[in-house]
Known about the structure:
Protein name: ABC transporter ATP-binding protein
Domain ABC transporter: 5-246
Largest sheet: 6 strands, mixed
GO molecular function, one term: ATP binding
Radius of gyration: 19 Å
Keywords: ATP-binding, Nucleotide-binding, Transport
Number of strands: 10
Mean pLDDT: 89
Bound molecules: adenosine-5'-triphosphate
Organism: Tianweitania sediminis
CATH topology of the largest domain: Rossmann fold
Shape: globular
Order of helices and strands: EEEHEEHEHHHHEHEHEEHH
Amino acid sequence: MTTGLQVRNVSKNFGGLRVARDITLDLPAGARTALIGPNGAGKTTFANLIIGALEPTSGSIYLDGHDISKLPEATRVGAGIAKTFQITNLFRSLSVRDNVRLPILERERRTASFLRRYDGDSAVEEEVEKTLAEFQLLPLADHLVRNLAYGQQRLVELALTLSLKPRILILDEPAAGVPSSDSHLIIDAIKRLPADLSVLIIEHDMELVFEVANRIIVLVNGTILVEGTPQEISQDPKVRELYLGAGHG
Length: 249
Ligand SMILES: Nc1ncnc2c1ncn2[C@@H]1O[C@H](COP(=O)(O)OP(=O)(O)OP(=O)(O)O)[C@@H](O)[C@H]1O
């Protein structure tokens, strides 16, 4: 059986606008692939096609050989495809620990009883502490999310997403809005992600992309211009001209 995510000849039109054109790519287990490209290239649209927020006009998406192209977003999350939460989904008036606990409980389908009364469950609490430790959030565990620096909030967001135990993770601009002095927090967290997780990183920050990705896909006008290793991409004249500009690589 083919494992991981396979995208085959996927196109998406918005009326007459062709935003994804015949995209084919593989995200095998353990992939660290970055999707880069100029503004309006269709990166977010492509992420939305994978998670099921949009349905392709044509083409198919397979998870472990099963066609998931028509499955709704919630079903795909259950199947193991996750995208980083928007920061607005964090509970800003709750502590970091309480935020991390919620998706774990939700995964265990206990959210309703949690909202009524939660007396603690040692397996859940153990996982909460483990997750906090993995993301180096233990020193901040009792802080309210609203009091954290932006980069730290993004770390909490990543920890929450990982609590869903996805197999395919879409990181949509993980460093957006994070001051460069804090971008190492995000880079380190991505480097510590489980080795067998398939990760697709959509990102403008080239320093981050070149540090964490071992494969880069350049999207232009909804189509794959070129795909290769970071070294190949940094040396590709079309990419240098179109996207990276002089002085990179
Ligand atoms: N729901 C929609 N209806 C119509 N057009 C859309 C819709 N969503 C996106 N577009 C258009 O599709 C094109 C690609 O947008 P998309 O947001 O996917 O690009 P992007 O590469 O993510 O850009 P950025 O880097 O600026 O986030 C743009 O021209 C955008 O205006």
